[in-house]
Write a structure and sequence with these properties.
single chain, Phosphorylase Kinase, domain 1, Transferase(Phosphotransferase), domain 1, alpha+beta, 35 strands
Length: 972
């Protein structure tokens, strides 16, 4: 296709009156201009604007049956993966697609495309050393360094190495108060480069030429190349692909050094080589050492540009160093921040926060009095001893239902004390004419929250999410009355005091949750608290009735007073338990209606220490025999060691509690995975090239072949919807096998809420793959299928007998027996005594290698079956920091709560849900939504905090029904 033909094709497809996408137009107006060539005959970039005049970059890939198609596929996957972080320094993919040539057109008129937010490069063609003007703005340079390093660390956590970091790969966008915000680009092809060059299938000359073309940048990029990349691209020996995440750190170190120093040392002329890199690096090291930069910054940049990759810092360590040294580094540019005097914090005696402390009885005297003001300052200062400060992206708004939204959202500076969370803002005195200029030496308390509450625990979780809290220096508290201190007195107090700004900038969250994500977080928190309340409501304090022991039975009486005290500590639990339909009386809940029916009447008596609010160490299993005295007493068969006073609960609650803990952990991972949450809320899959499945679906009727093709090509999300009996399970099984046949190194996780649904799908998948023949497991070295189960025999019994052979224990035994049998045969036919002795020794090693074999099979399984409850990192042998599976498929998805589904979904980078939105939802879904409505109408602030968000909460609690209802997804 000629350049003119390409421009015409893009104009018709994206900009014309009948455009398939858009419509878009040339950025800046006028006719569509020729694109920028990234890779000749393969990749081109157009700068366009959408109907709202927002700039976008259109990447067009030609040669879709060859390199172009490979590049497009990798770019989409890497950008989708990067989008999971929501990091502001990483590009956002907006749309993508695969267009075959129209009938009658030449085959090369087919193309693939990706649309991303348009960002300008910081590269200055006229002045390569300009550094985007950062040399004269050291504080801005430090903030942008922090941001870019954090974005690079986010990529590395996802297993993505940039491999091409130089000024041409750094972008900028306008950013509110800041004049700009920098970002990263050019990493989209890193995986493709690794796949092409890391296989060793290309000869050195061809590989180097291909790599140079993809890397681009030419001589302008040479100074930023680490020595290992220079060897790879311009060496003359065998090509060794040895780049790691530490290669990116070297490039970032050179790039940022340029921002602070100005022009880099002169690069020697002549063909590029490792020696030139070493000479350049030594000159740069000397310039850093002799520069007036802060010592901490000089040491950091020098450590980043070490010649040996093993001696460089990781990107995460760079971020941590900047955060911990931010004040020390910035002090040289802000003398007001020098010194060791305490920080100032102001709380108004007449404000709601002070009154709240009085109501909690944390202070005994009214803060409006002089004595009360002194006590207020003392108590706040005491709580803030060894406090930790962090950034709350939405201020106090998520945690308080009353109060002006603007006032809550501006309190984004959060200090966690011993007992309370203090939401603050930089102080600015209120005047009749408006607020006075802010005083950066003073933080003002706006809201306070007791950490020993549901909302307080949510705040503590925010600290875990941000990862950027830090200890505060000593804090001096000012209790301000409506008339004192006067502004002039405050100005006098501020003299010689440190500014809060460097500390606040050091902990500022790089990735902020949107309003929708915040609502989702609140909805999931409410759901988990409610599910926990359901569990706690089944626990009843009891006392053993004196002298009631008769053989192996004893009578237990409901301790109503202890129960009341326990319920009153938790408003939601108290409200739930107030309704006898939800929480029956003691005898009715544990009573035996007919002992002859062999009901499961097992209960657990747990030692409970109400004074400490903690469980004891003793748990005794008992069996309910009868309810002789109505609602308050029951008779149980119990050992003599049963606690005299404790809490009675149904047996097996530990498993349910463990599931809730797993949901809480997965909920945090789901909220951190913005792409997954967005796809569940509003699916926008990118269709790939149609997959021809005709050879594998000849026996199928209706739309099934098309659905299988759609399922295979949709990235990253697909929903397969249909009523029972419409063939969804068979469609999924065939799609899975076709995917594995074309992607030999991919791992798939298959999950469902129930063991029955999971094993039903497992039988289909394994049978069609030839791994299960007439109920007998068949081993295949290229496909290791594993059924995850817990270690308890009771749980193992829930696995279908035909699938038991795929549990890890069975796999190990079978593989070990096979290897021993193979060794025995080889020993019998050994050609020499020496070979026989070697084989005997090898057999002994195999017989002892059970644990190692177990670990290898666990990590190597590429078809993994696990219920939602067991799809945990530990049981899957998968770290939480990386997505261990290329595809996650969940059967009967509509029956699970979103937090339950999150457990398997967060383990992958591509997702398919199977189910029927018309079937019954999650357990007791209707009752849960009714209780949410009741809480919103309650008078207690702790319960009605989200009264204006009931509809939003309901939408997120039934999150999975949306994708399964949308007609654009596949239907069986």
């Amino acid at each position: 296709m000629t350049p003119d033909q390409l421009v015409q094709l893009i104009d018709e497809t994206f900009c014309g009156a009948d455009a398939v996408y858009g419509p878009y137009h040339q950025l800046g107006g006028g006719v569509l201009r020729p694109p920028r060539t990234v890779v000749e005959d393969c990749l081109y970039e157009f700068s366009l604007a959408d109907s709202r005049n927002q700039a976008v970059t259109l990447q067009v890939f030609q040669g879709i049956n060859q390199l172009g198609g490979m590049m497009w596929q990798q770019v989409v996957r890497v950008l989708m993966r990067a989008a999971t972080s929501g990091h502001p320094s990483l590009p956002v993919i907006q749309e993508g697609g695969f267009l075959e040539a129209s009938p009658g057109s030449p085959p090369d008129h087919g193309f693939a495309f990706v649309l991303t937010e348009h960002l300008e490069s910081i590269l200055n063609e006229d002045d390569p050393a300009a550094g985007f003007g950062l040399t004269d703005q050291p504080m801005t340079a430090l903030r942008q360094f922090h941001l870019i390093a954090d974005g690079l660390a986010a990529l590395h956590r996802m297993g993505i190495i940039h491999r091409n970091l130089w000024p041409g790969a750094v972008t900028w966008r306008p950013d509110g108060d800041e004049s700009f915000q920098l970002g990263l680009s050019g990493f989209e092809m890193s995986t493709l480069i690794a796949n092409m060059l890391g296989t060793g299938t290309l000869d050195a000359a061809l590989a180097r030429n291909t790599a140079r073309q993809i890397y681009g940048g030419g001589s302008r990029a040479w100074p930023y190349m680490p020595p290992e990349r220079m060897d790879m691209l311009y060496g003359d020996g065998p090509m060794a692909f040895v780049e790691t995440e530490f290669s990116d750190v070297y490039s970032l170190g050179v790039l940022v050094s340029e921002w602070f120093l100005g022009a880099l040392p002169v690069w020697e002329t002549g063909p590029p080589s490792r020696r030139q890199t070493e000479v350049f690096r030594e000159m740069l090291r000397k310039e850093l050492a002799n520069s007036p930069l802060p010592i901490a910054l000089r040491e950091l940049l020098t450590a980043m540009i070490e010649l040996d990759p093993d001696h460089r810092l990781a990107a995460g360590e760079v971020v941590a160093t900047i955060s911990s040294q931010f004040e020390a580094i910035s002090a040289i540019w802000d003398p007001a921040n020098q010194g060791t005097r305490p920080f100032l914090l102001l709380i108004k005696t007449h404000d709601a926060a002070a009154r709240e402390l009085f109501n909690w009885q944390w202070i005994k005297t009214d803060p409006a009095t002089e004595e009360g003001a002194d006590e207020l300052a003392a108590r706040v200062g005491e709580d803030l001893t060894s406090g930790r400060i962090l950034h709350a992206p939405h201020g106090a708004d998520p945690y308080f239902s009353s109060g002006a939204v603007d006032r809550k959202r501006e309190a984004v500076h959060l200090i966690l004390g011993k007992r309370a969370a203090w939401f603050c803002r930089i102080y600015a005195q209120s005047l009749p004419s408006g607020a006075s200029p802010p005083m950066p030496q003073i933080l003002e308390v706006r809201f306070v929250l007791n950490l020993d509450s549901a909302r307080g625990r949510a705040v503590l979780e925010l600290e875990n999410h941000s990862g950027a809290s830090r200890p505060t220096r000593a804090i001096e508290v000012i209790a301000a009355t409506p008339t004192a201190p006067h502004r002039s007195e405050l100005e006098e107090m501020c003299k010689g005091r440190p500014s809060w700004k460097p500390v606040l900038e050091a902990v500022a969250t790089k990735t902020q949750r949107s309003t929708e994500e915040m609502i989702a977080s609140q909805a999931f928190d409410w759901l988990l608290e409610y599910l926990g309340v359901e569990l706690q409501a089944q626990q009843y304090p009891y006392v053993v009735v004196e002298n009631s022991r008769n053989g192996d039975t004893v009578t237990l009486r409901w301790d109503r007073e202890a129960d009341r005290e326990r319920l009153n500590m938790h408003p939601m639990l108290a409200k739930y338990a107030a309704d006898p339909r939800r929480r029956p009386d003691f005898g009715k809940f544990f009573g035996v209606t007919d002992p002859g029916e062999n009901e499961n009447n097992d209960v657990e008596a747990v030692d409970w220490r109400p004074a400490r609010g903690a469980w004891g160490d003793r748990i005794e299993r008992c069996t309910v025999v009868s309810s002789p005295q109505g609602a308050d007493e029951i008779k149980v068969r119990a050992p003599s060691s049963i606690p005299v006073r404790g809490v009675l609960r149904p047996a097996g609650q530990i498993g349910t509690r463990m599931l809730l803990d797993r949901q809480a952990e997965a909920k945090t991972e789901l909220l951190d995975n913005r792409l997954l949450l967005r796809q569940l809320s509003r699916p926008t899959p990118i269709p790939g090239r149609p997959v021809d499945v005709s050879a594998h679906t000849a026996d199928m009727i209706g739309d099934s072949p098309r659905v299988i093709s759609d399922m295979l090509q949709s990235d990253p999300f697909f929903a397969l919807q249909g009523p029972p009996g419409t063939g969804k399970t068979e469609i999924a099984a065939r799609a899975i096998n076709l995917h594995l046949a074309n992607n030999l190194n991919h791992r798939i996780l298959i999950s469902a809420q129930s063991n029955y649904a999971l094993d039903n799908l497992a039988q289909r998948v394994l049978s069609s793959k030839g791994l299960l023949v007439e109920g007998v497991p068949i081993d295949d070295p290229n496909n290791i299928a594993m059924r995850v189960s817990t270690t308890s025999g009771e749980r193992r019994n829930k696995v279908d007998s035909q699938i038991q052979g795929f549990t890890l224990a069975e796999l190990v035994v079978r593989r070990q027996d096979s290897m021993v049998e193979h060794a025995d045969k080889a020993i019998r036919t050994a050609a020499t005594p020496a070979l026989r002795d070697l084989l005997v020794e090898w057999k002994q090693v195999v017989e002892r290698a059970g644990p190692e074999l177990s670990d290898r099979l666990h990590r190597g399984a590429n078809i993994v079956f696990a219920t939602c409850a067991t799809a945990t990192p530990r049981l899957l042998n998968a770290p939480t920091s990386t997505a261990a599976f290329d595809w996650v498929i969940v059967e009967e998805a509509a029956k699970a709560w979103p937090t339950e589904l999150a457990i398997p979904l967060v383990r992958g980078v591509r997702w398919t849900l199977i189910g029927d939105h018309n079937q019954l939802g999650a357990h007791r879904e209707r009752e849960t939504l009714e209780f949410l409505e009741e809480c919103s109408e309650d008078e207690q602030p702790e319960l009605n905090a989200y009264r204006d968000k009931v509809q939003d909460f309901s939408r997120y609690l039934m999150l999975v029904r949306g994708p399964l209802r949308r007609p654009r997804e596949g239907r069986a």
